[in-house]
Amino acid sequence: MTPIWLEDVIEQICIARILRDSKTTSGRRLSMILVDNAVEFMVKVHGENLFNKKQLSLSRKDWESTKPVFALLVNTVLPHTPASPFQQEIIDYHNMRNALYHGTNPLSVEPKKINNYMDIACKLLELIFGFVNSEDEWKKTTQSMQTILLPKGEKIELVRFSNTGDGTVTMQTNRTLADTDAILLMIYGITKEIGKPPENNEQLEKCLNHSEQFIESKRLAVNISHLRTQKKIEKGKLALKSTGRDYIKKKYLVSS
Questions:
Q1: Which option is the CATH number for 155-255: 1.10.1610.10, 3.50.50.60, 3.40.50.300, 1.10.10.10?
Q2: Residue 193: what pLDDT?
Q3: The pTM is what?
Q4: Pairing mode, if any, of strands 252-255 and 157-163?
């Protein structure tokens, strides 16, 4: 059975392929951002495995402070892998991604650069996790993903997530969200950006408020209870069940 995190990475790379081939400036820009997100996610996943196996000489506090700093994260984790030769290239591409994402002018990106970074992402999958896909397999999976994302011409809304660096994650979308969708998306975004689900309702509420998705504490608790009844959130913790993840991925195009 394919791990959930690996399914997520494969989906992101496939969506990046779709956006790369859209022949639009914004599509290529978002494609590069998605590839970078997949790379960062893989490095964090492997770093967490190394830390848990005590193969990183860091305290939990030091590891948690390392994860949000991309260059430090890459230079800490990749030397323990066969993918270490890609360290500087990954950091350079991440800096390009930051310019694309945070710049005040809508920059464009060449398909060649997207392809190069996508190749590196696939190399990480192969060298670190032993996952290999042929080009034909990638095409087939990408086509399936395109059908899921856009059934009968349905428009899928993009949702972006940002880690503010102080334990708060924000999300941006142009769509007006139902409370339950905002909660599921926010849990997804926090888990993606910080590496673990929200610790409590207060942290979740704070991130929602910072994202201008205002939900009162009592209503938040009620909605969470309903989502647990619907088997979209785990009992006893604020983590998404597979049904919750599937729900938002069918309805939204999620990115960090």
A1: 1.10.10.10
A2: 87
A3: 0.60
A4: parallel
Q: How far apart are CA 134 and CA 137, in angstroms?
A: 5
Residue among 109, 103, 74, 72 at smallest CA distance from 90: 74
28 sits in which H/E element = helix 25-52
**Residue 19, both tokens:** 């956006």
* Rounded Cα gap, residues 52 and 174, in angstroms: 39
**What beta strand segments (E) does the chain contain?**
157-163, 169-172, 252-255
pLDDT at 220: 93
Query: What is the rounded distance in angstroms from the CA atom of residue 80 to the CA atom of residue 197?
Result: 26
The values of phi and psi at residue 186, to 5°, are: -65, -40
Residue 140, CB-side half-sphere exposure with 13 Å CA sphere: 5
Question: Which candidate, 89, 100, 51, 44, places its Cα nearest to that of 67?
Answer: 44
Per-position DSSP letters for 159-171, written without gaps between them: EEEEE-SSS-EEE
Low-confidence ranges of the chain (pLDDT < 50): 153, 256
State residue 107's pLDDT score. Answer: 58
